[in-house]
Design goal:
Shape: globular
CATH topology of the largest domain: Nucleotidyltransferase, domain 5
CATH architecture of the largest domain: 2-Layer Sandwich
Number of domains: 2
Helix content: 25-40%
Largest sheet: 6 strands, mixed
Distance between the termini: 50 Å
Number of helices: 6
CATH superfamily of the largest domain: ATPase, nucleotide binding domain
Structural class: alpha/beta
Strand content: 25-35%
Order of helices and strands: EEEHEHEHEEEEEHEHH
Number of strands: 11
Radius of gyration: 18 Å
Length: 248
C-alpha cells in the first residue's frame, strides 16, 4: 500500500511579505492545500499564530495530520526570521513533529518553472543584496551553484557565467542598473515571483521528509549571511570587528 504524501505546514517571514502554507508531496508531484500571505513586517508576530490556526481549521487539518513543519531560514529580515523560528520551534517541540527548512533564496528559485539558471536575489539594504545562483529544471529541486553572499549590486555580474533569470525583491530596485550593466545576461522574472512562498518551501520540505533529512531542532538557526545592526554596534563598541559571513 502506497503511503499518502506528507502534509507539511510551512512558514516564511523572511521578507515584508509573509506566507503560511499547507502542502502535500513534493515539487515534482505535490499539491498546495492552502496558502495565505500578507504584507507588513510589523504584523508578523501578531498575526502568525492566528493565520496558522485559521488556515488549519478551514482546511480541516489538525496537527495530528501533519508530517512535519518547514521554516524559511533566510537570509532576510532579522526580526522576521526570529519570529518564525521561535514559532515553528515551539510547534515542533509541542507536537514532537520533525522540522525541515530551506533558504528563502532556494524557495524563490523553486517558485520558477523552467530550465536554466536563476539568480535569487533579495534586498539586504545598506546598498547590498543577498544573492544565490541556482540551476533549475522542471520537476527537480533547484541546485545551488556556489555560496549565498551579500554583495554590492554593482558587482553582481561577477557571479554570472551564463544568462540568468533574476527573481526577488531586489529586482525592481536595481532593474535599471542591471539592464544597463548586464545586457543579455539579465532577465527579470514576473513581479508575482519576487517574494519567497511558503508553498514552495512546503514542497521542498516534502522532499526532505521523503529523504529523512529533518533538521536537528537544537541546532536550527536563521541564515543571516551578515551580522545584524545590533551585533555590529556591539562589536564597534568593544573595538573588535569581524568580517561579514560569505561577503563578496
Amino acid at each position: 500500500m502506497t503511503a499518502s504524501p506528507a502534509l507539511i505546514l510551512a512558514i516564511d517571514t523572511s521578507t515584508p511579505v509573509a506566507s503560511v502554507a499547507i502542502t502535500s508531496g513534493t515539487l515534482a508531484a505535490g499539491t498546495v492545500r492552502a496558502v495565505f500571505s500578507w504584507r507588513g513586517a510589523v504584523s508578523h508576530s501578531s498575526r502568525l499564530l492566528t493565520v496558522v490556526e485559521t488556515m488549519m481549521a478551514e482546511a480541516r487539518i489538525g496537527f495530528s495530520d501533519l508530517a512535519g513543519f518547514a521554516i524559511g531560514l533566510g537570509p532576510g529580515s532579522f526580526t522576521g526570521l526570529r519570529i518564525a523560528m521561535a514559532t515553528v520551534k515551539g510547534l515542533a517541540v509541542a507536537t514532537g513533529l520533525p522540522l525541515y527548512g530551506a533558504s528563502s533564496l532556494h524557495c524563490l528559485a523553486a517558485g520558477i518553472a523552467g530550465d536554466g539558471q536563476v539568480l535569487a536575489i533579495a534586498d539586504a539594504r545598506k546598498k547590498e543584496v543577498y544573492a544565490g545562483r541556482y540551476r533549475i529544471a522542471i520537476g527537480k529541486t533547484p541546485e545551488r551553484l556556489g555560496n549565498i553572499v551579500a554583495i554590492d549590486p554593482e558587482r553582481i555580474g561577477a557571479l554570472l557565467d551564463a544568462p540568468c533569470l533574476f527573481v526577488g525583491d531586489a529586482v525592481p530596485i536595481y532593474d535599471e542598473l542591471w539592464r544597463r550593466q548586464l545586457g543579455e545576461r539579465y532577465q527579470a522574472a514576473p513581479a508575482c515571483c519576487h517574494f519567497p512562498s511558503a508553498a514552495a518551501l512546503g514542497l521542498l520540505a516534502g522532499e526532505q521528509h521523503n529523504q529523512s533529512t529533518a533538521l536537528p531542532l537544537a541546532a536550527v538557526a536563521p541564515l543571516y549571511v551578515r551580522a545584524s545592526d545590533a551585533e555590529l554596534n556591539l562589536e564597534q563598541a568593544s573595538g573588535s570587528m569581524r568580517p561579514l559571513l560569505q561577503k563578496s
